[in-house]
Amino acid sequence: MILGEGSVFLLLLLLGFRKIKKSIDKEITLSKNQNNFLLSITHELKTPIASIKLYLQTLNKGKISAEQNESLLDNAMKENKRLEDLINNILHVSSMDSNKMQPNKESIELNTLLKKVTTSFSSKYKNCDIQLSMAPDIQINADEFMLETVFNNLIDNSIKYSEEICSIEVACFLDSETVKFEFKDNGLGIPKEEVLHVFNRFYRVENEETRRKKGSGLGLYIVKEFINLHQGKITYKKNIPKGSIFEISLPK
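Predicted structure:
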């Protein structure tokens, strides 16, 4: 009897230790990711600010051609947009954490929205071939701001992790009572062991190639949260021979 009670006590003790260890490991991982985020965000904020400052100082000195003037202004606007996007991502996460962000749904013409997003990236990134294919006149009841943010983040992510020759295919089609989206690229792809974590907040794939790329680890987290707020689903699969495919399913 004493032996049986002792065995039960030992088992409960071991289970308790295991649970405590899992909790500690989780906190350590979260702390590590938050520290990585703070380091990334500090670098991400300083870089565009420093670039904008340099461009403005050069413009202020004068004695440059009209072509150089236009190029400097264009570069300054791009860095300003990068800074704006980063701040917006941080604000989105803050709003989601306080449960203040809810979709303001309305009828949206997807052809118009997707053409607007893809055209904007095509004009900005001349070396990237972005193809859009979709059925005409697809309507969806959704928050336009959130959908545009999702599309922007996915395409920006594809460009960021592409190599010199960038190719992106965006598709949209109807499937029963849902609207399907597919974002396919020929970039670096995501290692199999990392796939389960890519939608986590602050998470960035840990390899040398991706570490050299700019990023805060918030983009895909925001994408998934916005999709969840629409009762939708997003999944990742490997593109063949290389690259990534993100598939989204949203109710009409």
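Summary: The chain has two domains: 7-97, 106-251.
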